[in-house]
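Practice record 12: protein with zinc ion.
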Amino acid sequence: MRANLQDQKSLLELAQLDIDLGRNASDKAKLLASKEIEAASDLALTLSDQLIDARNKVGDLELELKRSENDLELVETRIAKDKERLLTTSSPKDAQGIEHELTSLAKRKSELEDLELAVMEELDKVRSELDAATNNKAAAEADLANLREQLASNVTELDSERARLLASREKLIATLDSELAVVYQRKADRGSSVGRLIGRECGACRLSITATNLDEILALAPDEIAECPNCQALLVRS
Ligand SMILES: [Zn+2]
């Protein structure tokens, strides 16, 4: 089939544009299929659960601390009252009863103080856990946001590259002999469109052409375009 030298050059450019478009599409598919964002999103969710747990633990312990503080206050008030009563009573029997009560109140007070201390220690621990959980969650969410932003920007970049390639392709097709353009497209759809002849190798399928076939190809007029006998690509002689 006939193809002037300019068209032959355009065919090579067209094939390159189609290779670039194919790479562009597969790059985008790879980006969209990446599990990185899913993993980061799962991690952010897990850390969010951990944060809620830590917050609940702190809340529970703060309540417990408040309760034990109240109990202690009650016992202390009672002790103060009993001591006052002890000073004012004139009955030895009453005094004995009050002293007995003061002994058990002192024991109770000591128990409550121990409990309060233990709760405060535990509270310190879970508050540190809460701080760590807050920081971890914030870091994971920042990572996730960065990944999403990066993905969006990469996709935008690929989309504009694709638009550029398609515009160049359209421009090139418009300059091409229309019959040649149809043949090109048919071959491109089958997966092998154009190859440059380099030595005796077809640039499309990379297979060597036999000496007999090569002689026939090289004997063609310069504006006659050959086909690769192996892959049927249009063969451009450089
Ligand atoms: Zn070939």
